[in-house]
Amino acid sequence: MRRVVLCADDYAIAPGVSEAIRQLIAARRINATSVMTVFDGLKEEADALKAAARDMGASIGLHVTLTGTFAPLTAGMAGPLGTFPALSALLVAALTRRLDPKAVAAEVEAQFLAFAEAFGGPPDHVDGHQHVHVLPVVRRAVLAATARHAPKAWLRDVTPAKGALNGFDFKGRLIGSFARGFARDAARLSLVTNSGFGGAYDFSAGHDFAALLTHFLKGVPEGGLVMVHPGRVDDPLTARDPLTHQREVEYEVLRGEGMRVILDAADVRLSLPEGMGHKAAA
Could you report the per-residue pLDDT of 29-44, keeping only the tens digit for each? Predict the structure, then answer.
């Protein structure tokens, strides 16, 4: 059986999301989560996650956040309204090299420090909200900060596994195009990455998520990673993020009785492969 990582993104974006992720970790339905560090109450969320993940073999990572309708930890990344830029604006600035590298580095540094303070140590892995960690300018800051603060952590390479592409999968291919050379750049700093990525889709309600998840898990190789976004919708989530109802759809599939069938059908087990940490098998 292939060992893969099934990672829930956006821990700490809202209480309903955090609680759902903790329940899934405790039930061994996922074996990783990525934490946003820019909201109030991080220490309490960290303590609850550590308790739920104790002896579960779960990887707890930093979800570097540089986009969204909420405030950054540092002034340099704040726009006129005091919030992060939209993804489209950040993407254009990064690709045209107009993104301030000092401002990005300062914000990334602050998020690493916030994680360490809340969790009592460095992250087990590092990735990015809306995959910003692979973009020009941001990539350099994230890799440098990881090498400095968490040299034993693994990083998320969002290059799609061919078998995990959903049809032509424009979204997955586009995300993968931004990640070109990311694994090579990480290796130059003696940092490791996952081997193949799946989980990208348009989050519309018309999808059969159970079928999608089976496809993603079947399609990633040994050492691959599939991202998910489970959660319960509450007022903080609605105020902070447009992805709401589909989180509940994903949560119900992940916690349901059919999840064991999905894992068996994909012939995978949720475990960190060799070189991606020293956690016990999930």
Answer: 999 999 999 999 999 9
